[in-house]
Design goal:
The protein has 200 residues and is an alpha+beta fold. It has three helices and six strands.
C-alpha cells in the first residue's frame, strides 16, 4: 500500500504540534482578552450611568433651589409693593391731617374778622383788627411758626432778602435798617424770608 503524502502544516498547526500547551495558553489568552473587551464597555456604561444619575440629581437640586429663590423673590416683590402703597397712603393721610390742623387753627381769625366787619365806627374797627392780629400771632405760635428777627441785626442771606441799600452812619455796615415785610420760620425751616433794607 502506498503511503499518502502528508500535507504541509500551517505555522499555527506546527506550533500546536510542537508545543500543545502553548497553543492552549494562547487560546485561553485570546478568550480572556475577548472577555476583557466585553467587560470594558459594560464597565464604562455603568460609570457613565452613575455620572448621569449624579448630574440628574444635581440638576434636580438646582431646579429646587431656583424655585425657592424665585418664590422668595416674588414674596419680597409683593411685600415691597405693599409697603410702597401703604407708605404713599400714610403720606397722603399725614399731609391731609397737617393741612386740616393748620386750617382749623386759622378759623378763630376768620371769626374775629367777621366780628370786626360788623363794627361801623372807626375805633371799634381798629380794636377788632387788633384782636384779629393778636389771634393770628397766637395761631402761628401754636403751629410752631416764629418771626425772623431782622431790625438792627446783621444781614444774614440765609434769613433776609435785601431789596434796598441805604446810607445810615448811625448803623454799622451790613446791618438791617428797616423791615419791609416780616419773615417767618417753622423750626429750622424758613417759610418766608424777611424783606429788608440794609445799611452800607
Amino acid at each position: 500500500m502506498e503511503e499518502k503524502e502528508k500535507e504541509p502544516l500551517t505555522p499555527d498547526e506546527a506550533t500546536e504540534k510542537e508545543n500543545p500547551n502553548d497553543a492552549e495558553t494562547a487560546t485561553f489568552a485570546e478568550s480572556a482578552e475577548e472577555g476583557k473587551e466585553e467587560k470594558e464597555p459594560k464597565k464604562k456604561v455603568r460609570h457613565l450611568e452613575a455620572e448621569l444619575a449624579k448630574a440628574e440629581k444635581k440638576a434636580a437640586e438646582g431646579e429646587k433651589a431656583l424655585e425657592e429663590l424665585n418664590d422668595r423673590y416674588l414674596r419680597l416683590a409683593a411685600e415691597y409693593d405693599n409697603f410702597r402703597r401703604r407708605n404713599a397712603k400714610e403720606r397722603e393721610n399725614l399731609y391731609a391731617d397737617a393741612l386740616a390742623e393748620a386750617l382749623t387753627a386759622f378759623l378763630p381769625m376768620v371769626d374775629n374778622l367777621e366780628r370786626a366787619a360788623a363794627f361801623s365806627d372807626g375805633e371799634s374797627l381798629a380794636k377788632g383788627i387788633a384782636m384779629v392780629l393778636r389771634g393770628a400771632e397766637e395761631t402761628l405760635g401754636k403751629l410752631g411758626v416764629t418771626e425772623i428777627e431782622a431790625l438792627g441785626k446783621p444781614f444774614d442771606p440765609a434769613l433776609h432778602n435785601a431789596v434796598m441799600h441805604v446810607d445810615d452812619p448811625a448803623l454799622g455796615e451790613n446791618t438791617v435798617a428797616e423791615v419791609l415785610q416780616k419773615g417767618y420760620m417753622k423750626d429750622d425751616r424758613v417759610l418766608r424770608y424777611a424783606m429788608v433794607k440794609v445799611a452800607n
